[in-house]
Amino acid sequence: MTGMTSSARPHLNRRLAEFGTTIFAEMSALALSTGSINLGQGFPDTDGPEEVREAAVRALRDGRGNQYPPGPGVPELRTAVAAHQLRRYGLSYDPDTEVLVTAGATEAIAASLLALLEPGDEVVALEPYYDSYAACIAMAGGRRVPVTLRPHDGAFRLDLDELRAAVTDRTRLLLINTPHNPTGTVLTRAELAAVAELAVERDLLVVTDEVYEHLVFDDAEHVPLATFPGMRERTVTIGSAGKTFSFTGWKVGWITAAPDLVTAVRSAKQFLTYVASGPFQYAVAEALALPDAYFDGFRADMLAKRDLLTDGLEQAGFKVFRPTGTYFVTTDIRPLGETDGFAFCRALPERCGVVAIPNAVFYDHREQGAPFVRFAFCKRTSVLEEAASRLKTLGGAL
Q1: How far apart are CA 29 and CA 273, in angstroms?
Q2: Mean pLDDT over all residues of the chain?
Q3: 398 pLDDT higher than 80
Q4: 253 has which bridge partners?
Q5: Neighbour count for residue 45 (Cβ, 10 Å)
Q6: Cα(first)–Cα(last) distance of the chain, in Å?
Q7: What is the pLDDT of residue 110?
Q8: Is the pLDDT of residue 127 over 80?
Q9: Residue 5: its pLDDT value, please?
Q10: How far apart are the C-alpha atoms of 232 and 279, rounded to whole Å?
């Protein structure tokens, strides 16, 4: 019989069966089909600095990176990453043995977890979490153990006692994200010190996703976990050019870590993409060397956009958790008489022409995230103004 398979077994590996199509694909398609403003997926709607784009063009024309780049990444970029970590945070890394370039932060996460986990290992991750965390833990055969960030005094906070209680003899690794997507929380120096003490005490590895390191607002500060006592040798720090320079399509990320950790992650990474983004690596090397004025201006621009959108959301009737980091804002829809973020987000394009993401997709405990919805503000000011105007109609539409 044509078209039939000989086995009733599902095609998709059972470890991935729960994931399916990402919510980002669903909501982005909905934005296109309805002509809505897409504040769901976190990508800018304008390119980053012209001099960085021109650096990529120059590399292409000069034949740099058009063939396979070196497995660990081009030397210029590894050197630039090491210089950035030293200049910003006083962290000294050897570009040859302690820096690895990846196909974006997503590959860095995947390669790190595939390399460092054995089947059955437990991974403690902050919930809500970026959706690839769960999928990568599953692909590695690990077991995720979520510790939920909960609303408190206008922000989502980490309960350190809950974190400590989540660690067992089976815990291999802590997966930390700060500044935190989707809540916009930035872990404080005291919270990070407690995380570090726990990791050292229980001899845990830490993978820390710090891709929003340059987007911290108000009185918040970004402090890399690797700067705390006993952490440099056990921490894999993940960075990314996409978020900082607004070239998300280039897919240039990196890890910095001790040589044995880099060697382990590289062993997995070489069988994923092997290498990627050749000419763009040279451009990102130049981007990382931009003066402080660029980074300050980037942050100030995003701060103004944060305030524009959060003000509009508050006027529309949402309870808003004003973020101190990232370019996302989490809102509570219960003041609008709603409790189901999925239903709300699927109806929102037809109701007012705006797309958002239901936070519940970032939770194991879906009920914890049910009333929360995430908006991205990494868009042009005129787009955010129009979105805010459309959202103000919700009071009468819902």
Answers
A1: 27
A2: 95
A3: no
A4: 102, 240
A5: 12
A6: 52
A7: 98
A8: yes
A9: 52
A10: 30
pTM of the model: 0.95
- Residue recorded with tokens 């930035």: 186
Under 8 Å between Cβ of 250 and 242: yes
CA-only gyration radius of the chain, Å: 21
pLDDT digits (tens, 9 = 90+) for 65-106: 999 999 999 999 999 999 999 999 999 999 999 999 999 999
pLDDT at 6: 55
In angstroms, rounded to a whole number, what is the distance separating the alpha carbons of residues 38 and 216? 23
Measuring CA to CA, which residue among 284, 149, 329, 301 is closest to residue 214?
301
Type of residue found at 28:
S
CB burial of residue 22 (10 Å; 0-12, 13-18, 19+): middle
What the block records as the tokens of 144 is 């995720």
Peptide bond into 128 cis (omega under 30): yes
**What are φ and ψ of residue 317, in 5° steps?**
110, 0
Distances (CA, A) of 139 to 114, 130, 265: 7, 15, 15
Other Cβ atoms closer than 10 A to 24: 16
Burial 80-119 (b: 16+ CB within 10 A, else e): bbbebbeeebebebebeebbbbbbbbbbbbbbbbbbbbee
Q: Find out whether 189 and 219 touch, Cβ atoms under 8 Å.
A: no
